[in-house]
Amino acid sequence: MKLDMAEKLVDKEKIWFPWYADFRGRLYAEVSDLTPQGNDASKALLRFAHGKPLGTEGLWWLYVRAAKRLRQRWAAGGRQAGAG
Q1: Please, which of 5, 23, 29, 76 could form a disulfide with 34 given CB 3.0 to 4.6 Å?
Q2: How far apart are CA 60 and CA 77, in angstroms?
């Protein structure tokens, strides 16, 4: 489903996502297939129209996120296939 939607949108210069806020003020995309809040596959199929360099601080936060993900995988049953 995600790939089908991505194929339909591949030639578009930009796409927009409709958003809504719940009672706590959290934002959610109204579409469920291809969204920046989706799983890793959904996020990997998207590219920002106005990308920015990561910078030193951004790189640090990327490392923090990667370390947390690895810790979660290892805590879920040791080293898994494909985890380094």
Answers
A1: 5
A2: 27
Question: What are φ and ψ of residue 28, in 5° steps?
Answer: -135, 140
* Rounded Cα–Cα distance for residues 13 and 84 (Å): 36
The conformation of residue 52, written as its DSSP 8-state character, comes to: -
Q: What DSSP letter does each residue of 69-81 carry, written as one string?
A: HHHHHHHTTSPPT
Within 10 A of 42 (CB to CB), how many other CB atoms are there? 19
Q: How many of the other CB atoms lie within 10 Å of CB of 56? A: 7
At residue 56, φ and ψ (nearest 5 deg) are: -65, -45
Q: How far is CA 73 from the centre of its chain?
A: 18
Tokens of 48: 């920002």
pLDDT in 10s for each residue of the chain, 84 residues: 778 888 888 888 888 888 999 999 899 888 878 888 888 888 888 888 888 888 999 999 999 989 998 887 777 765 555 555
